[in-house]
Design brief:
The complex is a heterodimer of chains A (about 425) and B (about 200). By secondary structure, chain A is an alpha/beta fold. Chain A has 4 domains: about 45 residues; about 110 residues, Immunoglobulins (Immunoglobulin-like); about 45 residues, no CATH class; about 190 residues, 3-Layer(aba) Sandwich (Rossmann fold), CATH 3.40.50. In chain A, about 30% of the residues lie in helices and about 35% in strands. In chain A, the strands form 6 sheets. Chain A has a 6-stranded mixed β-sheet with strand order 18-17-14-19-20-21, with helices on both faces. Chain A has a 4-stranded antiparallel β-sheet with strand order 1-3-7-5, with no helix packed on it. In chain A, strands 6-4-9-10 form a 4-stranded antiparallel β-sheet, with no helix packed on it. Chain B has about 200 residues and is an all-alpha fold. Chain B folds into 2 domains: about 55 residues, no CATH class; about 100 residues, no CATH class. Chain B contains 9 helices and no strands. In chain B, helix 5 crosses helix 6 and helix 5 packs parallel to helix 9. Chain B is elongated, with a radius of gyration of 39 Å. Classes of the chains: A alpha/beta (about 425), B mainly alpha (about 200). Chains A and B meet through helix 1, helix 3, strand 15, helix 8 and helix 9 of A and helix 1, helix 2, helix 4, helix 5 and helix 9 of B.
Chain lengths: ~425, ~200
């Protein structure tokens, strides 16, 4: 800005001087004195402007936060070349992050010995990975004529994780379990809670498991077996194909899918299972299976950076890289979309021995709320509902478990409904 | 602003000041010579060029843009005749990026008031639903169910059978009201059939 003002005033002075001299007109030549004085003063002000060395330090109370949490940010500046009489500081926030409290601007002096934070604010944002870059500062000369701007680097990376919901026990029944004790029924006899069957006593059996009533009736020793409960391998698949998601009002259905995946990952990991994540739609985005709290963090980190993609190679689910999944393990697909091709693919995976849980996000309530009331829209809702219920029942017939989630209600409710349906099926 | 830019500005400013000072002295000292050898010849050249430009008829100036436009038009026509015919996209009838299933159906229904292609698309959608219903009820594969539907699974209702034959909608002389009645009846019966399944 200073250079523009200098150039303009200087050129004006030059033109006036030249015109005055060319026509030997003293008043015109004299007019050039004012802009020449201004430009000279501007230049001198600029030369006299202090060249401070400012160091910035941006500190946050956490580098990872969920969507419903906030991050406290403090910015402190230090000038190593004396105090600055007037300083304007502005911290640029990337798209997706907003200031929930405090102020991202500061205007005032900066003393040489200042160590306290000059900016304090609270951030909130939507799911994503963000980089807070440089802090912009403007410095004025003593009379405010010259201004210079600086960008002080204080980079910091933040992750806003998808909001996770606490879920109850999710009913899954894979064909293959691991050797360690866990919550999943393994379809193997042994020690457990649920009754599995009876067999004849063999030497070495625990006498506490003898069925004395059967012995009283048959005079033969019978042992009661219980179903072993083990942990299992669970592979979560988040459908990130652009065509599988929609923008509904201010919401994007992919965000619901990401939140559901985060909740499911937390739930499965907390039960002790070996959980992996595949984000399907872009390049191979795979979180290798693992257990424990750190695995939850890894999966949530991957979900925070998940983006929709429209790659022709991943247009339908047929290209799911099944080699990543252990044979006969549990697959959990989270998607808003379901068509004929997807049903065929899921049926094929089921026939290969995978146990499949399909978390279907019902977008019809969201979309219908956006439509105006009309005969056409009423018919559209009826067709969409008919098709969706039919497709889900087709999947159920193939043996795919369904969690039908209406995103206007908590996911825990949908899980509870699925658990009750699973209980009814087993009884 | 970087230190390099600051340095350039300072040097440039100084140089410009010096130039102005020197130029001012020279102008003042040699004003007559500059006027005789620079200013006056420039003014004379301007008037001479203007005189010759005025002699050129107006028709010539108008002919230039017309000729350029004609050449461009001719090239475009020649290229369109030699290039292969473009296939008109059916984009609006397929789901747009970021569009949900319900929104897409709603748009199709709105368009079906006047567009045969939208009617065909709707008919295909419901025919797929009907085939899946038949497959579920009769325990058939989807291919067999489609075959059964073509052979006349819904023959008891001519309106419904006609509606679920998508290609008929390309040529059917059916006004909007008749199409709505057929759609309504088909949907009612499919829903009733679904409840029975």
């Amino acid at each position: 800005m200073t250079s523009y003002r200098f150039t303009a005033s200087f050129l004006l002075a030059l033109i006036l001087a030249l015109v005055g001299l060319a026509f030997r007109n003293l008043p015109i030549a004299a007019l050039s004195v004012l802009p020449l004085f201004y430009s000279t003063t501007l230049l001198l002000s600029y030369l006299a402007l202090p060249r401070p060395e400012i160091a910035a330090r941006r500190s946050v109370d956490r580098l990872r936060a969920a969507e419903d949490e906030t991050i406290d940010v403090r910015v402190s500046l230090a000038s190593s070349r004396g105090s600055i009489p007037m300083l304007f500081v502005h911290d640029d926030l990337p798209d997706g992050l907003s200031c929930a409290g405090g102020d991202v601007h500061y205007q005032g002096p900066l003393s040489a010995t200042s160590t306290h934070s000059i900016l304090r604010y609270t951030l909130e944002g939507s799911r994503g990975v963000y980089e807070l870059g440089g802090i912009h500062a403007l410095l004025w000369s003593r009379f405010g004529l010259a201004v210079t701007n600086l960008t002080v680097d204080a980079p910091i990376h933040l992750r806003v994780l998808p909001a996770s919901e606490k879920l109850g026990r999710i009913p899954i029944h894979p064909r293959r379990t691991r050797a360690f004790a866990g919550p999943i029924r393994s379809n193997l006899a042994g020690s457990g809670i649920d009754f599995y069957g009876c067999r004849a006593f063999t030497p070495g059996d625990d006498i506490r498991r003898i069925n004395w009533r059967a012995y009283a009736r048959t005079q033969e020793l019978v042992i009661c077996d219980f179903e072993q409960e083990r942990i299992t391998d669970v592979s979560l698949i988040l459908d990130a194909r652009a065509r599988a998601h929609a923008v509904v009002g201010s919401d994007h259905t992919f965000e619901f899918a990401a939140r559901a995946t985060a909740s499911l990952a937390s739930s499965f990991c907390q039960q002790g299972n070996n959980v992996g994540l595949l984000i399907y739609g872009d390049v191979l985005n795979w979180v290798f299976p693992g257990v424990g709290r750190s695995q939850i963090d890894r999966i949530h980190d991957a979900l925070s950076g998940a983006r929709l993609a429209s790659k022709l190679a991943f247009e339908d689910l047929r290209q799911i890289p099944t080699r990543l999944f252990l044979p006969r393990s549990q697959l959990v697909l989270v998607s808003c979309h379901l068509d004929e091709a997807d049903i065929e693919t899921l049926a094929l995976l089921k026939s290969r021995g995978y146990a499949i849980l399909f978390v279907s996000i019902d977008t019809i309530p969201l979309e219908s709320a956006q439509l105006t009331e009309s005969r056409d829209n009423e018919l559209a809702v009826r067709i969409a509902r008919l098709r969706r219920s039919l497709y889900l029942r087709s999947l159920e017939r193939y043996g795919v478990q369904i969690i039908d989630w209406n995103p206007t209600a908590p996911l825990a409710q949908a899980v509870e409904r699925a658990r009750q349906a699973y209980r009814r099926l087993r009884s | 602003m970087s230190s390099r830019k600051q340095c350039n500005l300072v040097l440039g400013g100084g140089l410009a000041l010096a130039t102005v000072a020197v130029a001012a002295v020279l102008f003042y000292r040699y004003a007559d010579g500059i006027r005789a050898h620079v200013v006056r010849p420039a003014i004379e050249t301007y008037f001479v060029v203007r005189f010759y430009v005025d002699l050129v008829p107006q028709l010539f100036w108008w002919a230039i843009p017309l000729a350029v436009a004609s050449v461009l038009l001719l090239r475009r026509v020649l290229r369109s005749q030699t290039s292969p015919a473009t296939v008109r996209s059916r984009g609006p009838l397929t789901a747009r990026p970021g569009e949900g299933e319900l929104t897409h159906l709603s748009r199709l229904l709105r368009r079906s008031h006047h567009s045969r292609f939208a009617r065909v698309r709707l008919s295909r959608t419901l025919a797929e639903v009907a085939a899946r219903l038949i497959a579920a009820r009769e325990g058939l594969s989807l291919t067999d169910a489609r075959q059964r539907m073509i052979q006349g699974y819904w023959r008891d209702s001519a309106l419904m059978h006609g509606f679920l034959t998508p290609r008929k909608h390309y040529t059917a002389r059916q006004d909007d009201a008749e199409f709505r009645v057929a759609l309504q009846e088909t949907l009612d019966r499919l829903e009733a059939y679904d409840r029975d399944v």
